């Protein structure tokens, strides 16, 4: 990609391998079209989307075996799209989303790199109404609670776009904001669960990675704005 150094890494997930083009490092920043400025993303944060982080791999591993039959799925903050690609390979109905201007380009490249049909993509600002987005049976994300303000924004989005009977799965590397998010989800009628999972090869229990699950059998939710 012009302006960036990239490399390709192989990730073995489920019964297949996925080749993912990623940024070669997290120090890169090129913004000739002022896309970063328009998106409100600082130069320090700009390149973070371009890696498969441990929490992202943990989410992809979970999606390799999760029950997804007949479900409409939304991935939040997809980055390079590994979890969405795993779901696409399984034939799932998945929509990937992010706010980074380069996420869609990398996602499309990675789908082609793995011989997959393009993954539907939506640029999504969690704070902005998105009525055409509709509702989903399963909403997933990795490391999406790294700032305190993300709790309210994410909870609000889920209220607007989760089905009355829905499941939410968040791969979290042990951020301090997960407790507040769980309380917000319980207030929306979800029952929480937590699984501890390894985030690095060779890691031993107690694992720092957490797969936060929230399941709601039925609830009355507000209409999508």
List the helices and strands and how they pair.
Elements (H helix, E strand, L loop, with lengths): L5 E8 L2 E8 L11 H5 L3 H4 L7 H10 L8 E5 L5 H8 L3 E6 L4 H11 L7 E3 L12 E7 L6 H13 E11 L5 H10 L3 E7 L11 E8 L9
Parallel strand pairs: 3-4, 3-6, 4-5, 6-7
Antiparallel strand pairs: 1-2, 7-9, 8-9
GO molecular function: methyltransferase activity
Protein name: Methyltransferase domain-containing protein
Keywords: Methyltransferase, Transferase
Description:
Pfam families: Methyltransf_16. With 225 residues, the chain is an alpha/beta fold. The protein has one domain (50-216): Vaccinia Virus protein VP39 (Rossmann fold, 3-Layer(aba) Sandwich), CATH 3.40.50.150. Helix content is 27%, strand content 28%. The chain has 7 helices and 9 strands. Strands 5-4-3-6-7-9-8 form a 7-stranded mixed sheet, with helices on both faces. Strands 1-2 form a two-stranded antiparallel sheet. Helix 3 (54-63) packs parallel to helix 4 (82-89) and helix 6 packs parallel to helix 7. It is globular. It starts with 5 loop residues before the first strand and ends in a 9-residue tail after the last strand. The model is unreliable at 220-225 (pLDDT under 50).
For CATH, the homologous superfamily is named as Vaccinia Virus protein VP39
Q: How many angstroms separate the termini?
A: 37 Å
CATH class equals Alpha Beta
Number of helices: 7
Number of strands: 9
Binned, the helix content reads 25-40%
CATH fold naming: Rossmann fold
Shape: globular
> What would you call the structural class?
alpha/beta
Order of helices and strands: EEHHHEHEHEEHEHEE
Largest sheet: 7 strands, mixed
Mean pLDDT: 91
What is the alpha-carbon Rg in Å? Answer: 17 Å
Uncertain residue segments: 220-225
Query: What is the number of independent domains?
Result: 1
Give the amount of beta strand, in percent: 25-35%
Instruction: Give me the side-by-side strand order of the main sheet.
Output: 5-4-3-6-7-9-8
By CATH, the architecture is named 3-Layer(aba) Sandwich
Organism: Luteimonas endophytica
GO molecular function: methyltransferase activity
Protein name: Methyltransferase domain-containing protein
Keywords: Methyltransferase, Transferase
């Amino acid at each position: 990609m012009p302006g960036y150094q990239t490399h390709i890494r192989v990730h073995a997930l489920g019964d297949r391998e996925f080749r993912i083009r990623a940024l070669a490092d997290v120090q890169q920043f090129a913004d000739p079209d002022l896309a970063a400025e328009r998106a409100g993303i600082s130069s320090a944060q700009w390149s973070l989307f371009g890696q498969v982080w441990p929490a992202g791999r943990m989410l992809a591993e979970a999606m390799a075996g999760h029950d997804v039959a007949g479900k409409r799925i939304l991935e939040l903050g997809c980055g390079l799209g590994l979890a969405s690609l795993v779901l696409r390979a399984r034939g799932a109905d998945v929509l990937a989303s992010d706010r980074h201007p380069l996420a869609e380009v990398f996602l499309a490249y990675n789908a082609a790199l793995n011989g997959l049909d393009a993954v539907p993509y939506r640029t999504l600002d969690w704070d902005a109404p998105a009525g055409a987005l509709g509702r989903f049976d399963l909403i997933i994300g990795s490391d999406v609670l790294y700032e305190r303000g993300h709790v309210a924004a994410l909870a609000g989005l889920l209220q607007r776009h989760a089905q009355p009977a829905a499941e939410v799965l968040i791969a979290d590397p042990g951020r301090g904001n997960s407790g507040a998010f769980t309380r917000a989800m319980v207030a929306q009628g979800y029952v929480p669960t937590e699984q501890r999972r390894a985030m690095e090869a060779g890691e031993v229990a107690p694992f720092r990675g957490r797969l936060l699950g929230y399941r709601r059998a039925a609830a009355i939710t507000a209409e999508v704005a």
